[in-house]
Amino acid sequence: MRTDQLMGSGRRPEKALSAAFVRQVTIPGKYFDGNGLFLRVQLNGARQWVQRIVIRGKRCELGLGNPSLVSLAEVREQAFANRKLARAGANPLQAKHETKAVLTFEEAARKVHALHLPTWRNKKHGEQFINKLATYAFTLMGKLRVSDVTTADVLAVLSPIWTVKPETASRVRQRIGVVMKWAVAQRWRQDNPAEYIAQALPKQDKSKKKHRKFLPYAEVAHCIEVVLASGALISTKLALEFLVLTATRSGETRLARWDEIEWEAPATSATSATWVIPASRMKAKREHRVPLSARAVEILREAETLVDGSGLVFPSARHGKPLSDATLSKLVKELGFDADVHGFRTSFRMWAQDLNSAPREVVEAALSHTIRDKTEAAYARSDVFERRCILMEIWAAYLAEESGKVVRLGVSA
């Protein structure tokens, strides 16, 4: 009905319009329906749904879209919802703006990536976070508003790779969850659809999980000899041997700095120097003290000739830059050893277990492992530093092929 028809009666009936009328009407005017909703037809033929409504005592008009895109049934539902919100004291206009402000999943993921980037230990981890989502998630759900993502959407992303690439699938799921938790914090949704999705997926075959390759501990000393005899950069060779002797991770050794070395050890200590790795570079995010064996100290003395002003103990050929993880791994593999650099920690662990009978808490502390059992952790608050001094000296002696002279490290030690 047109405005003049409705105004004559003084009353605007509910659902006065029909879908057929909306499709056909071309005469300029306002055609009212109910709940303040009307169809505006302008002189130039443009058409728009409009709702006249009172919001917090102020009369205003809300544009609800074009009739060619928004059906009569849909706009009636929206008009009713708006009026209900307004009667409850809320602002439908504000709600509409907030809905528009909700980011898509891809936009939210890139926002979360930017927020977390300064907290990752290295650039590679940051790149992996966004690259995995770009490869597996953005194509299927990247354009969805983060508030509209469902468990079905997450399931569609994970199903093709869940059993074929289980480790990748688990990481993608975890990263989707991080984005969703951020969306919950933004009050854009109330749940994390990635949280319980594993219950809807088949069990993964854990036996196929790839572990880092390691050398049997009996072959580690030979590996070091071959490395030292190679034509590799002296800094690279020293760094690799130092990594093995200290049972540390690649990043901890490659980024070692001279100001982390404490040369004067306590009089009661069995070591002459200690390496204090800051929490920022540790996986567990807590400071780690490493007792240095006599051979580890010798390596540091040799490394002093490489000082380039960067503060790095093992600088690369590029001035001021640290050695890359690929450099160490490539050296070991090119020399014919089928092992990962991180695997030397496993070699150390197996040696301590098989030949040394070292107490578990001493070995775990040497590897800077976090004890997951809360009860055990409550009793293991000491870093058993003095006992680790002895353990690392025996490890160095073993690698120097002097294992026959090693005194067993028992509980009494």
Write structural notes for this entry:
This protein has 413 residues and is α+β, with helices and mostly antiparallel strands. It has three domains: 3-98, Double Stranded RNA Binding Domain, CATH 3.30.160; 105-208, Tyrosine recombinase, N-terminal domain (DNA polymerase, domain 1, Orthogonal Bundle), CATH 1.10.150.130; 217-405, Intergrase catalytic core (hpI Integrase, Chain A, Orthogonal Bundle), CATH 1.10.443.10. Helix content is 46%, strand content 9%. The protein is built from 18 helices and seven strands. The strands form two sheets. It has a four-stranded antiparallel β-sheet with strand order 1-2-3-4, covered by helices on one side. It has a three-stranded antiparallel β-sheet with strand order 5-6-7. Helix 5 (105-116) runs antiparallel to helix 6 (123-136), helix 10 (217-229) packs antiparallel against helix 11 (234-246) and helix 16 crosses helix 18 (385-399). It is elongated. The protein starts with a helix and ends in a 14-residue tail after the last helix.
Give a brief rundown of this model.
This protein is α+β, with helices and mostly antiparallel strands and 413 residues long. It has 18 helices and seven strands. It has three domains: 3-98, Integrase, DNA-binding domain (Double Stranded RNA Binding Domain, 2-Layer Sandwich), CATH 3.30.160; 105-208, Tyrosine recombinase, N-terminal domain (DNA polymerase, domain 1), CATH 1.10.150; 217-405, hpI Integrase, Chain A (Orthogonal Bundle).
